[in-house]
Amino acid sequence: MKTASGKAKGRKLQQIVRDKILEAFPTLEPDDCRSTSMGASGEDIQLSPAARKLFPYSVEAKARASISVYAWYQQAKTNAPKGMEPLLVIKQNYGKPLVVVDLDHYMGLVTK
């Protein structure tokens, strides 16, 4: 994949996350939640102080084709009984366990 295509994929994912946050918290203005430019250091989604009070998370977005997490998440979905939300727990050597859930499900959790 060309560098420009890869950056476009990453940019699109950041914009999706930004839009989901703004949709979940209608009191926020568009300037409260912004997607950063590709290649910029720091957080991928910049939040205003008002947005941080509602959404106390620092977002790093990665859009790549070769992440095996998707295969593992698909297995969790396949194994989930009807009506149950799939949840994937992953851990690498010397790292903390992480949880992977669907973005829409996650947004439902943080807005309750």
Word description of this protein:
With 112 residues, the chain is α+β, with helices and mostly antiparallel strands. Helix content is 42%, strand content 11%. It contains 4 helices and 4 strands; from the N terminus they run αββααββα. The strands form 2 sheets. Strands 1-2 form a two-stranded antiparallel sheet. A two-stranded antiparallel ribbon has the order 3-4. Strand 3 and strand 4 form a beta hairpin. Helix 1 packs parallel to helix 4. The chain is globular, with a radius of gyration of 16 Å. The termini are far apart. The mean pLDDT is 90.
Task: Name the features.
alpha+beta, two-stranded antiparallel ribbon, 42% helix, two-stranded antiparallel sheet
Total beta-strand segments: 4
Strand content: 5-15%
Query: Helical amount among residues, as a percent range?
Result: 40-55%
What is the ordering of alpha helices and beta strands? HEEHHEEH
Strands in their spatial order, largest beta sheet: 1-2
N-end to C-end Cα span: 39 Å
What's the tally of helices?
4
The computed structural class is: alpha+beta
Task: Report the C-alpha radius of gyration, rounded.
Answer: 16 Å
Main beta sheet: strand number and arrangement?
A: 2 strands, antiparallel
Stretches where pLDDT is under 50 for at least 5 consecutive residues are none
Give a brief description.
With 112 residues, the chain is an alpha+beta fold.
